[in-house]
Specification:
The complex is a heterodimer. By secondary structure, chain A is of the alpha+beta class. In chain A, 59% of the residues lie in helices and 19% in strands. Chain A contains five helices and four strands. Chain A has helices spanning 2-8, 19-73, 75-96, 103-109, 137-152, and strands at residues 117-122, 127-134, 156-166, 172-180. Chain A has a four-stranded antiparallel β-sheet with strand order 1-2-4-3, covered by helices on one side. In chain A, a hairpin with a 4-residue loop joins strand 1 and strand 2. By secondary structure, chain B is an alpha+beta fold. Chain B has two domains: 2-60; 82-197 and 214-229, 2-Layer Sandwich (Alpha-Beta Plaits). Chain B is built from seven helices and six strands, in the order H-H-H-H-E-H-E-H-E-E-E-H-E. In chain B, the strands form two sheets. Chain B has a four-stranded antiparallel β-sheet. Chain B has a two-stranded parallel sheet with strand order 3-6. The chains are: A alpha+beta, B alpha+beta. The interface between A and B is large, with 69 and 96 residues. Strand 1 (117-122) of chain A pairs antiparallel with strand 4 of chain B.
Chain lengths: 182, 252
């Protein structure tokens, strides 16, 4: 009976899938669907982004060309500006290295009267060498005392008594040196 | 017949695998390279954008520049520090200083005369490198009263062109009574410097940043302008020169 039924059945018997195969096929279908979605969406997004960037890039290149042209045409102004800036920087530096050596005399007259000075020299390191003629030892003491006070007031540095000579004509010839603080 | 049957049975599976392969290849061969290009273009865009910003800034700086006043500023600054040794302006300034302060000038000697023209390729000394320009040292002997000498020392650092007193040696020639006219007559030997610097001969590239004049620059210009000009140049100051390949942007 069974063999007879099989023989007369015209509809092919569908092969039964195992549950594992069915799951795998369903997973594959889902995976392919999402892969297609990702491909389409990312393709549209990336393509759109690329197109947008390209347009913006080309616009920027054009803007740069226009600006470059304007800058090239303003070479005279740029030259003038460069000259002014270079020279102001230079002059600012020069002004910074212009010691007011004239102030040395203001400093000197604060502790010695101009009539007592016989010679003054200032070297490149601002070392002041001073020759003074003092009439008495009291004047010598007064001068050295005032010089020490100037040191305390930070107007001079490293004061030195270089020489002290009792002159034949009377009085004292003093040689002092110090570094002037400008 | 068997193959047809097999195909029929696995049609869904074949379509799914096909879609998966096409999508994968599309992403790998299409989307990823375009994404890479987009990223590269974005990098280039950012770099170009920075250059355009610099250029925009430059253009705005140029628009803010008044060419006439800028030329005047260059002239003012050149009167303080000329582009070459400019002995006439140096001698004129010293002459003006002695006349202004009343001292009598004696010996005058230039220590480093060299070429009368600007020596742009000349090696700078350490002192010159510190300053950033060329130094022309000279010595001058002056005679006068102590006040006149002090006046000379004070005035010499406040005139155009710029001078610097490097050393000085003062000798008291005569010690007469205070009431005497020749009291405190002193002689001074001054070791001085004056400065010069060639103008720039090139300007930066188009994309090089440019800054407008700062308040410090304006202060320096105002300071120089306020200094007494003791000598007026008889001829216009020489225009700065640039290489022949470029238009002369410094022409005055």
């Amino acid at each position: 009976m069974d063999t007879a039924v099989r023989k007369i059945n015209l509809i092919p018997i569908k092969q039964e899938e195992s549950p594992q195969t069915g799951m795998a096929i369903a997973l594959l279908r889902r995976l392919s669907f999402w892969a297609l979605v990702i491909f389409i969406v990312s393709g549209i997004a990336v393509g759109g982004m690329y197109y947008y960037m390209q347009i913006r890039y080309e616009q920027l290149v054009k803007t740069k060309q226009e600006l470059s042209q304007i800058v090239s045409q303003s070479a005279a102004k740029e030259g003038l500006l460069a000259s002014v800036k270079q020279r102001t920087a230079l002059i600012a530096k020069i002004m910074g290295v212009q010691p007011p050596v004239g102030n040395v005399f203001d400093m000197l007259v604060s502790f010695v009267s101009p009539g007592q000075i016989t010679g003054v020299s200032v070297d490149e390191k601002h070392t002041v060498s001073l020759s003074i003629h003092a009439a008495s030892i009291d004047e010598v003491i007064s001068i050295t005392d005032t010089l020490i006070k100037q040191t305390t007031a930070h107007r001079v540095r490293a004061p030195q008594l270089v020489s002290l000579t009792f002159g034949r004509t009377g009085g004292f010839d003093i040689g002092v040196s110090f570094i002037a603080v400008f | 017949m068997q193959l047809n049957k097999l195909f029929h049975n696995y049609l869904g599976l074949i379509v799914s695998v096909g879609i998966l392969i096409v999508s994968g290849l599309g992403i790998l061969l299409g989307v990823v390279p375009i994404l890479q290009k987009t990223i590269d273009m974005n990098t280039q865009f950012n770099s170009l954008s920075a250059e355009v910003d610099i250029l925009k800034n430059k253009v705005s700086v140029f628009e803010s520049i008044d060419e006439v006043s800028m030329r005047s500023n260059v002239q003012t600054l050149l009167s303080a520090v000329p582009s070459d040794k400019s002995l006439p302006t140096l001698l004129g300034t010293l002459d003006g200083l002695t006349a202004k302060t009343g001292v009598a000038s004696g010996n005058f000697s230039l220590a480093k005369l060299g070429s009368l023209a600007t020596e742009s390729a000349q090696r700078l000394s350490a002192d010159e490198q510190d300053v950033g320009g060329n130094i022309l040292p000279f010595t001058i002997d002056i005679t006068g009263s102590l006040d006149q000498i002090r006046g000379f020392l004070a005035a010499s650092v406040s005139v155009r062109r710029l001078l610097r007193i490097r050393t000085f040696d003062v000798s008291f020639l005569k010690t007469a009574p205070e009431s005497s006219e020749s009291a405190n007559l002193v002689s001074a030997t001054l070791g001085m410097d004056t400065f010069y610097s060639p103008l720039p001969t090139t300007i930066g590239s188009v994309s090089q940043p440019l800054t407008a004049l700062t308040s410090t620059d304006d202060d320096v210009i105002a300071k120089v302008a306020s200094m007494q000009l003791l000598v007026v140049p008889s001829s216009p100051l020489p225009p700065p020169s640039v290489g022949p390949s470029k238009p002369d942007p410094f022409s005055l």
